[in-house]
Every structure is written in C-alpha cells, then in structure tokens.
Amino acid sequence: MTSMLKNRKVLSGAHAAAEAMRQIDPDVVAVYPITPQTPIAMKFADYVNEGKVHTEMIRVESEHSAMSACVGSSAAGARTMTATSSNGLALMTEIVYIASSTRLPIVMNLADRALSGPINIHGDHSDAMLVRDSGWIILASENAQDVYENTIMAVKIAEDKRVLLPVMILQDGFITSHSAETMYTFDDETVKKFVGEYNPKYSLLRTDNPITMGPLDLFDYYFEHKRQQVEAMDNAKKVIKEVFSNFSKLTGKTYNYFEGYKTEDADFIIVAMNSSVGTAKFVADKFREKGVKAGVLKIRVFRPFMDEEVVEKLKNAKAVAVLDRAASFGSHGGPIFHDVRSAFYESDKKPKMLNYIYGLGGRELSVELLNKVFNDLIEFDGGKSMNQVQYLGVRD
Amino acid sequence: MKPTRRQNSAKVLIMEQKDKGWKEIPIGGVIEKAGNALDYKTGGWRTFRPVINEDKCIGCMLCYLYCPDSSILLKKDDKFTFKAYGVDLDHCKGCGICASVCPVKAIEMKRETEFKDDKSPGHN
Predict the structure, then answer these.
(1) Shortest Cα distance from A280 to chain B (angstroms)?
(2) Mutual orientation of helices A335-343 and A307-314 as an angle, nearest 10°?
C-alpha cells in the first residue's frame, strides 16, 4: 500500500501538533501558554501571523478562559481547537466537563506534565488522569508521528454525529513535545480532504432556529443526559474503528485501540502509554535476541477503554507488566492497571500481572529499568513472590 | 383538603414517569424550542407575595423595570400611561424588589400562609 505521508521532516511533538492544526485550519483556537504546551501555541500563532491559516486565534487570560472560549465558539458551530498541560488543564477542568456534557467536538492537544505539587514542569500522566472520567475521548501518542496522525484523526472522531464528544491527544511533555525527530507529513490537500467541512448539529448563530445550550438540568433530566454521554462513548468505539480504517487508506499503516508489538507469541508483555512505548520496544527487541519472547502493548486509545481488545491481546501471555506514569493514591496500583486488571475479571484465561508506577515528575525511564521489568516478569512467572504494585526508579 | 406528604411524593413519582427517556431528548441539554422559560413555573418558590394597592400606584413603572422575572402586570390607565394592577403568580418568586423600589409604598409583601385558601395559578 502506498502512503500519502510523503513529506519527510524533522519536527518536535509540539511542532507536529501545530503542523496538524495548520493543515486542519480550524475556525477558532483559544489558548493560554503553559510549559511544555507553549511551543504548540507559539508555532500556531506564527501560522496565524503569517496568514497560513484562516483561524481566529483568541488570546485569553487563563486556561479556564481558554476552554470557556472554546465552548462558546464550538457552541456557535465553529471547528475549535486548543492545547494545554498540567496545572493549566487542572484550572480548565470545570469547563472540560462542560465541553463534553454539552457535546462539543473540541480537539485539544495535551503535552502531559506532572501536576503540582511540589511544582514540576516535566512529563508524567497525572494531568491526563485528572480528566480521565470527564467524558473526553483520549488518544495517546508514542512519538511526534503519532501526535500528528492522532490530531488529524481526532477531528473526524469528535465531529461524527454518532459521537459529538471532545477529543484529547496526549504526548509526553518535553520527552515528545520538545524532542525533534524524523517524521512524515501529508500534503495540505490530503488533510483538508480527510477532515472535510464541519457541519455542526447545533449552532447558536442560527438565528432562524434559535436554541438554548447549557440550561439548568436538575434531578428530572441530568441523569438522562449523562446516560446519553455513556452511549456516545460506546458509539465512539465503532466510529474510532471506522476512522482508523479510513486513515489507514492514506498512510498504509494499521491502527488499533491497543497496538501489539511482537505480542502474538509473546510470553512477557509490557503495557505502556505515550513515549515509554518506544523504549519498551527497544528493550523487548533486546530480550528477543536473548531468546525471550518479549512484546509491548501500546495504548493508542485510552478512553473509551476497550476491555475485550486488551484481553484479546494479553490473554495468551504468561506475565504482563502494566506501566503507569501516574499514581492513584490509596488504591491498588495506578489508573491503567485498574483498567487492565478489571478487564480480565470475567476472562477464564488471564496472565499474571504486575504494576509499575514509574517516571513521576519526568523521572527517566531507562533501558536498565525496563530490563528489570522483563526480568521481574520472568522471575514472577517462575514462581517468585513479588509485590504486585512496584515503584520503578524511585530511590529507597 | 391539604394533600398529605405521602400524596405529594406520589405526585412526584407520576411526574417522573411522564418525563421522557434518554433516547427521546436532544443531546447535551439543548433546548430546541426557544421561549420556553414561560413554561417553567417558579411561583412555587415564593414565601412572600407582593400585593399591589392600585389606589396608591402613581404609574412610575419602577416595579415593572426592576422585576427580575417580568412578573409585574400593567394596564393602560386614564391618568397614567400604565399602572401596575397585579402580579404573574406563576413566575413571581417573591423576591420583594418591587416593594423595595416602589417610591409610594404601594406594594406590600405578605406571607403566603395568608393566602392558603387561594386557588390562583402558581399557588401550590
């Protein structure tokens, strides 16, 4: 299959997000700078300044205002995008929930950064986990290439009439957002054709058919509207698959909720999200050279979480390590571990499972640490008793 | 006879059954038909009811302008352009702003309990 990803470029994850946004050419971008998201907004502001997009860029005074402006513009029927990180996401969380419950297909890039405190600017997933239950679709990116492709696909997923939910694209702060790497982009025309024109279901600007959005919704109907959101998330499972399939025709690649790397015959599998997937693949290859059947399961879609898929991909392994770059204080393991472990509850066939909390506040996930994970899995499978939840790379 | 608490809660249950299911309503809380605030009766929130003394009213219309629920009813008058003659009890929440701004004290706020036999709309 020929790929339309023809243009070889050296871009950082942040620049890749901005490049996708330029090609999508949204009607409105409302954004407030915060490290490590800032280069996305800066690069996009250049495009606005140079007249390369027709976007109305709204410079706001906070992230709370950024998401509020996005809600307003999306409710008006404009294709709307933004980006943020960490505490910025925390500040806009109130409106993040309002965006999804008002069913506005906003697309947001999130350069993952640890939440304060203590204050830290580096990459972990605590910000994404903060809004895990906000009703946004969440796509994860291993590298700049994924950021670019996920951002383009996000528009089609969000705006589908069966879905109409906002989509968030994750990339690891600094590790992905600030590292330049070789990647491939489409021609502008290809992206323009793929995303198409946005025809909103509702628009506040249609004065010939005035509507009310965001009204008071008490015990009589609030529950019904939440039930609709659950349904939209379920519909998204089907729509995401369709978008993956259509996008495959442009790239010649295959996409899935969980993408296995040498997992078919693997005895030992690491489940990871974002940049750690790349390191894990490298380490899995080293173990393969030593004759160990090692594999990696990459999470591309974190919400909706496809239980059946994760079970299908992991059930034949002997032992699995789930990597969490966020802690969930007071519960057994991290958030991804909760999902993966819970997915196996009804399954007759289940691998042994360990959870590793790692990389908090941007702590490096080295090859040595992942060597330890695969070695742990081998020993754990061999009968060695171990704590199910472990802290990888913390000083004792 | 006044309905008992049990009868009142039974009424609420029946109302819930008549409300639409999640498949039948627009998504995201969108209200597709404009001008529906009129259908939302807020008169039941009232503790105090404004009572207008038409003889005292000088037709300044301050109560009409200040009322947050557009609940002051006006009529044409020989002497003044308009004159307050009543209150839309379906929507008046009894905030008392009208009585407060009236320069001739023509509006008096009275406890709803004084009207307990009243069957007028909005009184429940």
Answers:
(1) 41
(2) 80
Residue for token pair 């249609």: A206
* Whether residue A111 is found in the same domain as residue A58: yes
- Tell which of A251, A272, A300 closes a domain: A251
- Rounded to the nearest angstrom, the gap between the alpha carbon of residue B106 and the centroid of all alpha carbons in its chain is 18
Domain of A54 in residue numbering reads as 7-251
Question: Which candidate in B24, B30, B41 is best for mutational testing of the A interface (most A CBs within 10 A)?
Answer: B30
- Residue A17 makes CB contacts below 8 A (sequence gap 6+) with A40, A83, A109, A147, A148, A151, A169, A171
Say how many domains are in chain B: 1
Domain end marker among A228, A251, A274: A251
Q: Read off the CATH number of the domain in which A295 is found.
A: 3.40.50.920
Instruction: Note whether residue A185 is domain-resident.
Output: yes
- Confirm if A310 and A343 have CB atoms less than 8 A apart: yes
* Residues of B at the A interface, defined by Cβ within 8 angstroms: 15-16, 19-22, 25, 27-32, 34, 36
Based on the fold, state whether residues A171 and A295 are members of the same structural domain. no
CA distance A102 to chain B (A): 4
Q: Which of A59, A42, A125 is nearest to A89 (CA)?
A: A125
- In which region does residue A314 sit, left (phi positive, over 0), alpha (psi from -120 to 50) or beta (all else)? alpha
Which of B16, B22, B30 is the closest to A212 by Cβ?
A: B30
Per CB-CB distance under 8 Å, the chain A contacts of B45 are none
Interface test with A, best of B14, B17, B22 (most A CBs within 10 A): B22
Q: Flag whether B107 is in a domain.
A: yes
Q: The domain spanning residue B64 has which CATH number?
A: 3.30.70.3270
Which residue in chain B is spatially nearest to A210 when comparing CA positions? Answer: B34
B13 part of a folded domain: no
The minimum CA-CA distance between A235 and chain B, rounded to whole Å, is 14
**Is residue A236 located within the same domain as residue A103?**
yes
Q: Tens place of pLDDT for every residue, chain A, 396 residues?
A: 589 999 999 999 999 999 999 999 999 999 999 999 999 999 999 999 999 999 999 999 999 999 999 999 999 999 999 999 999 999 999 999 999 999 999 999 999 999 999 999 999 999 999 999 999 999 999 999 999 999 999 999 999 999 999 999 999 999 999 999 999 999 999 999 999 999 999 999 998 989 999 998 999 999 999 999 999 999 999 999 999 999 999 999 999 999 999 999 999 999 999 999 999 999 999 999 999 999 999 999 999 999 999 999 999 999 999 999 999 999 999 999 999 999 999 999 999 999 999 999 999 999 999 999 999 999 999 999 999 999 999 999
Which residue does chain B place closest to A101, by CA atoms? B28
Domain total for chain A? 2
Q: Which residues of chain B neighbour A210 with C-beta distances below 8 Å?
A: 34
Range of the structural domain that residue B55 is part of = 48-115
